[in-house]
Write a structure and sequence with these properties.
Blueprint: H1 12-16, H2 43-52, H3 60-63, E1 74-76, E2 79-80, E3 85-86, E4 91-94, E5 102-108, H4 118-133, E6 144-150, H5 158-177, E7 180-187, E8 191-196, E9 199-204, E10 208-217, E11 235-241, H6 253-257, H7 271-286, E12 290-295, H8 300-312, E13 315-316, H9 321-324, E14 344-350, H10 354-365, E15 370-372, E16 375-377
Parallel strand pairs: 6-7
Antiparallel strand pairs: 1-4, 2-3, 4-5, 5-10, 6-10, 8-9, 11-14, 11-15, 11-16, 12-14, 13-16
Length: 378
């Protein structure tokens, strides 16, 4: 029935014509996943290699080429703390000059994982964007995503990998999280072909999903940073490991720096864990128990702790005994339980309130959640 009130009322086939439906017969390429072998890896060399990797290292050379606060409405830029270390999780701006309402923006991408598991890389990109955005006091239903899809369509397995990733993100994950993707774009010819010394060469990119996340805020003042506060006499770092100790190191910066292509990649196994994480962090934030926040960095837990320490110019004592074994640990350890790797969030809490916080947070998202409680000191 025609809509009389519509300024434009035209059938889509009149506007776009009647193009033939396109059908693609694509096939997936199976990957043989071998356990990652870190035997004999030098700890100090690996630590320096991870921190020096372009993905983890400082982006100051990009940030300082322009004015970060033009307009006077920037609440949170890339630089954190009095020493201006570029480790902020998200950007936050004010809506006007009078109030405290504003907007938060972040990004997420896990392209290296797509070489092994394209669908997992898409889920992790969304998860990274949301855990970055969680530094601000967001409400998950208000989050909107923009998806930038890139793939080398026509290459063996890439069309199927793109379909699997779009299905995993657009039809499964986002509906489960209650967030939408109203906008996006695609580039589907991610390959380069050239001739060198009469030999034809080609480089193709795996499926890449770059997610931009946006949310409006009623009050920007609840935004947290990774800066560890040296003025606090006694604080505790808590690792919220939503990977539940599976230690999936495939595609990590450590694996890349060691040129290892093996290993199972991390994944968002249960969207409800992420939903509950947002609720738990916001509950603790409202109680004033959270001093600092940082999502799991590309360099893993080690790089995350380093970035938090760099921002606050403090030392961090990490007891990792119980990342490796289950038990009571050494007598002077403050660690309760712990697991390793996968995407997660780190939260700095007042040590005096941490027992109550752990009861609140673990009950809120998953009863088997593991917490890492190393002592933070000057």
């Amino acid at each position: 029935m025609p809509n009389v009130g519509a300024p434009v009322n035209m059938p889509m086939n009149v506007l776009l014509g009647k193009p033939p439906k396109m059908h693609h017969d694509v096939k997936s390429v199976a990957h043989t996943i071998k356990p990652i072998d870190l035997t004999g890896v030098d700890l100090q060399k690996s630590a320096i290699a991870v921190l020096s990797h372009p993905t983890v290292a400082s982006k100051r050379f990009l940030i300082t080429i322009g004015d970060r606060t033009v307009g006077g409405l920037t609440h949170r830029d890339q630089m954190v703390g009095p020493w201006q270390v570029p480790v902020a999780d998200c950007a936050v701006t004010l809506a006007d000059y009078q109030g405290f309402a504003g907007e938060a923006m972040s990004m997420g991408e896990r392209t290296p994982l797509a070489a092994v598991n394209a669908a997992a890389s898409g889920r992790m990109a969304v998860a990274e964007a949301i855990t970055n955005l969680l530094a601000a006091p967001i409400e998950l239903p208000r989050v909107k995503l923009s998806a930038n899809w890139m793939a080398a369509c026509g290459e063996p397995g890439q069309d199927a990998a793109l379909y699997e990733t779009v299905k995993a993100v657009g039809m499964e994950l986002c509906p489960a999280l209650g967030v939408s993707i109203p906008v996006g774009k695609d580039s589907l010819s991610m390959r380069t072909v050239w001739t060198e010394e009469a030999e034809s060469k080609k480089v193709t990119s795996p499926v890449s999903l770059i997610v931009s996340a946006f949310a409006t805020l009623t009050d920007v003042r609840g935004t947290l940073t990774p800066e560890l506060n040296s003025a606090e006499a006694d604080t505790t770092l808590i690792l919220i490991d939503l990977g539940k100790g599976q230690m999936r190191m495939g595609g990590s910066i450590l694996a890349q720096s060691l040129e290892l292509e093996d290993g199972t990649v991390p994944d968002l196994d249960d969207p409800i864990d992420l939903v509950n994480l947002v609720s738990a962090i916001n509950a603790l934030r409202a109680q004033g128990q959270v001093l600092a926040y940082h999502d799991r960095s590309d360099g893993g837990l080690f790089a995350t702790a380093c970035e938090m320490a760099f921002a606050g110019h403090v030392g961090v004592s990490l007891n990792i005994d119980m990342l490796l074994v289950e038990g009571d640990g050494i007598s002077d350890s403050r660690m309760d339980t712990g697991d390793s790797k996968n995407w997660a969030a780190q939260v700095g809490l007042r040590h005096a309130k941490s027992k109550h916080s752990r009861r609140c947070s673990t009950k809120s998202w998953v009863s088997s959640s593991r917490l890492l409680l190393p002592h933070a000191m000057r």
